[in-house]
Amino acid sequence: MEKTHRFSLYLRKWGLPAFMLSPFMILVTVFYFLPVILIVVLSFTSMGSAMRWDFVGFQNYRFLFEDPNLPTILTNTLIYVSFTLGINVLFGLTLALLTTYFIQKESIGLFFRTIWMLPRMSPPVVYVLLWLWFFDPSSYGVLNSIRELMGLPPTMWLVNQPMTAVILANGLIGASFGMIIFSAAIKSIPQDLFKAAKVDGAGHWSIIKDIILPALRWPIMFVTIWQLLSLLTSYEYILLLTNGGPGFDSTVLALYSYHKAFQFFEFGYGAAVSVVLVAVAIVLTVMLWKLFGMQKIERGARID
Amino acid sequence: GCSTDEDAAGNESAGQENEAVEVVTITAQAPSPETTRVDNLVRAAEMLNEELEKEGQNIRIEVETQMFEGSWEDYYRQFMLAFQSGKEPDIYVASHANTGWLADGGYIQPLDELKESEAYADVYPVLWDAVTYKGHVWGAIQDTEARPVFYNKNILREMGWSEEEIESLPEKVKNGEFTLDDLLRVAEEAVSSGAAKYGILHRPVNGPDFQVMLYNFGGQLYDPEENKIVFDKEAVLKQLSFFHEIAQKNLIPEGLLSMEWSNIHSMVVNGEVLFYFGGIWNIYNWGQDDFHKELGKVDPEWVMENFGMMLYPAAEEGGQPITLSHPFAYFVSSNAEHKDLIIRLLEHVIHPDLQTIHNVETYHLPVTESAAEHPDYKANITLGDIAYMTEYTTFLPNHEGYEPYSNAVFKAIEAVQLGRQTPEEALEALEVQLKNDLRDQLTILE
Amino acid sequence: MDISYRGEVRSQVSFPKALKWKKRMPYIVAYGVLFITTLPVILMYLWLLLNSFSSQMKYGFIPVNFTLDNWRFLWTNVEIAGSVYPSIWLATWNSLVFAGVLTILEVIIGVMAGFALSRLRFPGRHGLLKITLILHAFPSIALLIAVFYILNFLGLFDTLWGVVLVKTALQIPLTAWIIKGFFDDVPWDVEWAGLIDGCNRFKVWYSIILPLVKPGIAAVCIFSFLSGWSEFLLLYTFIISDSNITLATYLQKLLSDPNLVPYGLLTAVSVFYMLPVIVFFILTQKSLMHMHAGGGKGV
Amino acid sequence: MRIELRNVSKRFDKADVIENLNMVIEDGEFVALLGPSGCGKSTTLLMLAGIYKPTKGDILFDGQIVNEVEPKDRKIGMLFQSYALYPHMTVLENIMFPLKQMKVPKKERVERAKEAAALVKLDHLLDRLPSELSGGQQQRVALARAVVKEPKLLLLDEPLSNLDARLKIEMREEIKRIQQELGITTVMVTHDQEEALTMADRVAIMKDGELVQYSKPLDLYHHPKNYFVAHFIGSPPMNFLKGQLSVQNDQLQFAGEGTKINLGRCLKEFNVRDGQSVYLGVRPHDLKLGKKGQISLTGVVNLTEPLGHTTLVNVTVGNSLFRFFSDKKFVAGLRGEVEISFDRHALHLFDASSGESLSKRHLADEEAEEASENIIPM
Amino acid sequence: MRIELRNVSKRFDKADVIENLNMVIEDGEFVALLGPSGCGKSTTLLMLAGIYKPTKGDILFDGQIVNEVEPKDRKIGMLFQSYALYPHMTVLENIMFPLKQMKVPKKERVERAKEAAALVKLDHLLDRLPSELSGGQQQRVALARAVVKEPKLLLLDEPLSNLDARLKIEMREEIKRIQQELGITTVMVTHDQEEALTMADRVAIMKDGELVQYSKPLDLYHHPKNYFVAHFIGSPPMNFLKGQLSVQNDQLQFAGEGTKINLGRCLKEFNVRDGQSVYLGVRPHDLKLGKKGQISLTGVVNLTEPLGHTTLVNVTVGNSLFRFFSDKKFVAGLRGEVEISFDRHALHLFDASSGESLSKRHLADEEAEEASENIIPM
Ligand SMILES: Nc1ncnc2c1ncn2[C@@H]1O[C@H](COP(=O)(O)OP(=O)(O)OP(=O)(O)O)[C@@H](O)[C@H]1O
Ligand SMILES: Nc1ncnc2c1ncn2[C@@H]1O[C@H](COP(=O)(O)OP(=O)(O)OP(=O)(O)O)[C@@H](O)[C@H]1O
Ligand SMILES: [Mg+2]
Ligand SMILES: [Mg+2]
Fold first, then answer.
1. Cβ-based neighbours of B408, under 8 Å, separated by 6 or more
2. Predicted TM-score (pTM) of this structure
3. Which Pfam families would you find in this protein's record (chain A) (predicted)?
């Protein structure tokens, strides 16, 4: 009797969390967590196109740190991630504020949000093609056509500023992520608070700063960290836009890992690059975590 | 065992009742879009089945085909994974350049028998090199293509060339009378005279074409003895200098290496460029979209009226002109059973009729002499006259290390064209890069 | 003028004359900024749209020669370089099914997990949160190889379910995290009320709390649907035999030979590709922009 | 600040909430808004605050139309019925918020916020978040936040509803003190009549979005404009009898269901006509046992509730229930008949159909009223 | 349902909120929880509801420990202080929700919900969302939702705070009626003492998380257990004087600041010792002008507030303010001295340091008390 009672208590305490979490946990463990472990193991092998698990110790890491391009790639990664992240978060926030707070008319807000979603909705290849077509250094590039009409010399913007292009192209896509999440979060703020703030004399700036931003603390933190990690690991658009060039001018660590693993099929080496990437990511995440005062935002359940 | 008696008696149905016909399914996969590569296998299977029937064998072949859409890398990766789980196709269609890793990884089996096979007897000898690796033949050559230099006849006319001079240009090139220096000179002239906006145009992204120049300057990419990629510094320097020079002289548009393909096509079709280092399939391209400002889509007839195609001129007077191709081959998985049947299938698939279907439909060149003589092929306005190019063709190494090599070289070309490095500086940097990327797979030829 | 007990001078309230303007100023600025920043994007996609209906762009941006030819894929099976493309409608249907299944799976599992992470009490909650986030730092491309071994081990390689599960797993931390934030904002007193009114926590979750996090669910739906819609890599890495073409692969087919890209067709197909997502996005807007009205004092 | 509402109407999607509200609040005046639940009190406050814009009509502050003035420029402090505390700010931050908007220097801000917190007895909870407070504590934070900026116009929507009696009294006094010291024009919604009547300079009674009566507390009590107000104000409520009037040689007669009352010579005081259907009303406190009053009636005792110092007697007059206070020593057999009476000035007559008061006594007269009337027995 | 709390404590991260609460609520009993803001009333209700688990101690329903029983299995109805309406459901759906959980058939569900809505006079707003309701209307929806399922235990957290006086009285009657008809054990938190004292069978007074007194309303009034209760209950509050006791030949003498009072022979009734520091307390209603009472004292008139039927007189006794009710006709010059007196049974003495009542009269005696005491003057 006592035992069954204890069991039912146990079940109650753990039953629901277990039930709610188990699909998530199983999926994540099997298809995320285990692969991650495999990747780490893989990074100690010289696996190549033959897909053989030949353990070579730290050789891949040694190669990586001897790589003459590593400093450039790291710098690129840093620049790319920090600027794109800035655009993603700040611009996403701006868009969300503009389209949900300032523009109260639903249809207009929707129009602008839809426009900003377009880059994310278009197939990456086509999105990149648009960029290439617009900024093509030939006189057939859309911008250059216009410049030609106005009697201006053609620009070589993509060649001269590959990183800027990469950052902008990615920034626009990332901004829509923030925009959607922030918009939804802004709409979740009880209307009462806006009323109270207005009555308390708050202007737009103060409402944004003191009401909206604190309410968005979680989403902002989440979007920042998530985007940070996404950017660290993203290579797709760079691959299509500049393929890391010219030279290594726009190569980032993730792209490098991709090149190594899937262009040259050095899987072991690619895994090692990923592991280094993750190490960097963890450090940055923990820093951001502290910066946002994550522990403080987290509050416990209010049902015993 | 086969019973001719039964066959003679025409008692087919009875025979089938006695001995059920075994159907062997052979799977084949090719990358999009050229379905003819695998469709030809189906056709070949029909031929083979007829033959088997005649032989009275109780075995028939069925080819299951599959196309892959995606990048090359995705295609290779998929094959690797499929192989690991035993789900790979029996016949894997890929470019010859993959021979090395496919063989090294144990993915495919040698097909040395084919070299002795009668069906493959009139394969252009040079093409065997493309699928030979470590002394074995690993693939059945499937097709090849031509990467000619297009020249704009109108521009030459404007520069005062006579019609005859224009038409004989390919011949002169072939004979080594018109050299690379001539090409540069004419291009320069065209630009300075205003007849053309640009003298030369080459592909804007990395690709095999860039290595044509290396071969042209007598360079070497691969050492089959040692099975290593060769860094031929002298030739590479010349190669880099060439690309440096055309940029320096403004023969090519600024920023060419970051342009988009469609704009390249536009420039060529609209007659802004004298020489275009292209591919035969471009003719097809130009009929797909409205690249021409007035005419829109242009058909092959128009192209042949306005453009000529020639080999890459030799680097020196009297030298050998050159081109490069990227032949495709059928590879056979090392897990494939019924190798004998597959070999027989491959012997059928090289039939000139089948080749021609593929060549005409997809702008490829034949791999056998008999196919080059096929009437349908010869009748083709664009292809008919360039079959000769196969004889001048060169290939990329089919060693795995070529991929990083070509990448590094492309970056070096980029650097010199953008004026960031002199060819010498670029060469030095390239050496460092190659050593890092290829490590023990590289030999350096000073 | 009167003097308050704090001794400071209190001025009469006065309301500026140019009131309407001053009031509208922030809005004008907002519209201005939005319009200026959005214009390039609008132009870009307008260009894409016009391009798909014309065979050429004069001066690069003025469409000439109106044509529906680029849209022929809608009524015929396009043939390029000898290969006949499958029907776009089949591809669309397949994409819809894939994205739909993915969205449903992800939303259900993610919302369940998000709820647990936000509102249930169990040890290790915090750690779990962090770990799932950090996992995202592994480039999914790097994981491909590892995931392959797992799938192969489970016998799920070359099955559609395998891809769906992998895709869901890769996306699920995102979903759980987004939705957790929204759950955090739901006042506790409504949940209390639900419990009192006879629900268990599970029931409270779906009958009371879920409707209140509609914006979050909408956001999650958008992202899941989008990622399912555009999924290509996994499908083509882990499925060999399946020839179910999706829109993403249809596009990829058009691009498969970089030398043979039919650009006009490509623009039209990509516009077509985007339409369902745009429609989906607009449909979710009502939920996404669901105003938090509240009722009572909310604690 | 002098507030004026001119023909203000407000309609929501589903309902007309305020209709044609006209009202003037003098500078420094303390007005209480009273009315049944859902009559539009909060809506009125929100319009004054500028959160809602009137659908029709104008709101004037010091003679200027402020319809388009943003809430932040109106120099108001407001306590919301739902408190609307900022959930992510601590108590101190919540209270400081309005000061921050006024750009008060940080140090002074903290000081003043702490003062305000002390005022509402929350100085020990400054670091708590609103979700960690009890209902009454939340309400007090809201109160502190409303008053801390010393606004020109203070709007209080049931500011004390969740406080205990002791605290309520203290808070009342504090509010009143601040209001008077600073001369803040104040509008307070309350359901506590005692609160309204004792704190306010004037009381506005609303019903279904309309202003029914707006006058000094005493007037409200003694001169209700209509049946609704008479019924609404006062505890226990006024006693009513429905019936017909008839005039018989200068004397007014009332005939209700099962009872007849001679109202005497009060025709001068009322606007009545013969045969008019009316409600007759008398406040319990005005009724006396016995015949001492000018008008008397008879009732049957229902129930007596001894209240210590006095006894509340329930009697049935005609068909209606009447309540009055008798001496502590009153003892009557149940069902026994009693004679009760009241003075003529305590008589209220309301038209039965319109509900309007028929009294001729005007508000202007109020000053002239006897001192003895200047009290509100609660 | 019989409820028992045994040594129940509750602590939050930042504070101990409930400490060692012991309390029994009999089946069908109506208990009112009274106490200052923030004393832990809502927390107690939430523990009864099962939302919060006691940190220590047990809660028993009908003799069974229910600490671990889910709220849904407790058969309770609750009205939250914050209403906690479901924002996405209409009024009707909100009210129907508990019934839905009980699997009441759809038709009956609608019927019962409509009935409940009518009870709280919201039948015309059934299709509104909570956000489209006024505060009072929201509160009534919450009330309807709490009672509609006819729970075994009804928990009401300030159920009527946002209703107008009229409605409040009606709702009180409805709650009481339902409670009695169905015999629902009810715990109600309220700040309205009148409400508590008139509606409840027993009243629990809490202070700082502790139960201070738990007894019948009359006891609370007449026999406050300590200074806090005495002070907290009653309006106007009890009058207090602080001072020293001294015993002089059977007579008890009280010496406060500036005043001396002879308390007479009441040593039997109080547990006092010579020299003890005490609070002396008398309720205003027990004070009479003149020397008629057994104990008399002198005060200086401060202020008189005529209240119509009576006059509230404020006098200073020693250093303290005393209030009492005099006859309506009382007139005294300001600053004039008056003699006031009260009977010995009205005397309250509390230990000055512990605050405990020193009275020997026990609760058990209450039955024996005179009838005249059985009333609470408000
Ligand atoms: N989550 C919490 N963390 C810390 N303290 C809390 C928390 N919730 C409530 N408290 C404190 O517990 C005490 C009791 O709160 P409770 O809500 O029970 O008070 P209450 O008696 O209902 O008061 P009121 O009459 O004002 O509603 C308060 O002092 C409050 O500040
Ligand atoms: N958004 C809305 N849509 C429709 N009707 C509304 C809306 N908001 C309020 N109402 C209605 O307007 C009327 C007035 O509401 P208001 O909040 O002003 O009442 P109140 O006088 O403050 O009542 P209470 O004393 O109950 O707080 C109510 O009947 C309410 O139902
Ligand atoms: Mg209200
Ligand atoms: Mg409470």
1. B430, B433, B434, B437
2. 0.86
3. BPD_transp_1
